[in-house]
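Possible regression after last week's pipeline update?

I re-ran a chain I had predicted before the update to compare outputs. Posting the input and the new output here so someone can diff against the archived version. Not blocking, just want to make sure nothing changed silently.
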Amino acid sequence: MNTLNDEVQSRRTFAIISHPDAGKTTLTEKLLLFGGAIRDAGTVKARKTGKYATSDWMEIEKQRGISVTSSVMQFDYDDFRVNILDTPGHQDFSEDTYRTLMAVDSAVMIVDSAKGIEDQTIKLFKVCRMRGIPIFTFINKMDRQGKMPLELLAELEEVLGIETYPMNWPIGMGKEFVGVYDRFNNRIEQFKSDEKDRYLPLNDEGELAVDHALKDSPLYEQTLEEIMLLSEAGNQFSEENILAGTLSPVFFGSALTTFGVQTFLDAYLQFAPAPQPRNTTVGEIQPINEDFSGFIFKIQANMNPKHRDRIAFLRICSGKFERGMSVFLSRTGKPINLSSSTQFLADDRNTVNEAVGGDIIGLYDTGNYQIGDTITTSKELYQFDRLPQFTPELFMRVTAKNVMKQKHFHKGINQLVQEGAIQLFKTIRMEEYLLGAVGQLQFEVFEHRMRNEYNVEVIMERMGSKITRWAEDEKIDENLHSTRSILVKDRYDKYAFLFENDFALRWFQDKNPDVKLYNPMDMSE
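New output (post-update):
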């Protein structure tokens, strides 16, 4: 029987981050194929066939071909248990992604070889750097024409400020792509070949050790020159720097054709960290600590629309989860019985009886949990580090089209708000419902889900962008409300102001120096 330490050491938990269309969902699918979790990958492009990506389970994702929620998938491979968190690539859902990055021990960054580093990738990368998360880079779509490999490496280093070490190197690209020179495994992996001929060994000088037509190709000669340049002028391989998050191992491949994916997975599992200690209000908690603990980083309503359920996603940080165990919710100090729990392959779920540090499990939630909640069996009620809370920038006034559907309207809005992608406010005098979000797409998803999951048509009235600041005081003079500084209460009954612009904010602060305002983003650093 495996000890807790052995179980924890076999876990690898990572998030896949990228810009939309870089191939994130496709790579996820291919990793699941190798883990035996699925038999048939539905490519994201193949919409007309009715085949959708396994990790894109929500109806709107299937229609648009994008991921707007973070999916959790688990599979076993080569004595490891791998937890993948597939994050939304769309920037309007970056808050969900930021919180997901708090629940992993490493990240896999996918870069489109034709586009290089894109804005969304930079933002997410900065969060990883801030947390010191090890980053593994997969440069995708090498079977299409793209930027030169040396240019892509330079971009990674200059734009992201991280050192790189190419684990393999492309031989040609686009129509001339013939494979990769595998520096780490000392072999050449051919792109289009039978399984038995796929790998060609290299000799001690780093050249082909067998007779092959590739030797006569100018692409081969060019690759040898570039490999020599990398060996002489490139960064040294350092496992220590990988774990510190300052050196990113780089892999070239093509997720759509499954080329280079298994080589990447094998190397990732060898060098990625096992579950790491986590900071709390009472110091670091080690994953092999016998007391069970974890934190809620995501809440998702209606993963099964037929059952109107709600799942709280828990990152286990220490100890062993056993179904039916009793834990304390640190925020309230109340005991909770964890009798209903699940593990995921997108929307396919299995009841989970045991799990350990590093695993992600789902807890059926009847309204007990909030994002950021800590649960533990320890009598000492501590809290894990705060999760980032974004300040909404865009606002909509929302009402139910049909007055007779107010009950469904309130239920739907309250459940969807608890997921954390949109925030709910009420005006002080009229008690109108206002929704705040980081991006426009979140409103579209909200409207779609209200219609499809709660059978409620809503009227959305644009209010434009606002600057949101919360008030520190529990009592506020309601006469401070104006058209340029709208006074509202959030869903926790805390006062906040929605300012028309920077000028309105400064004017208000000058006129009301006694009203202390704050931005929650400043508290998440």
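Follow-up from reviewer: compared with the archived run. The longest helix spans residues 218-233. Marking as no regression found.
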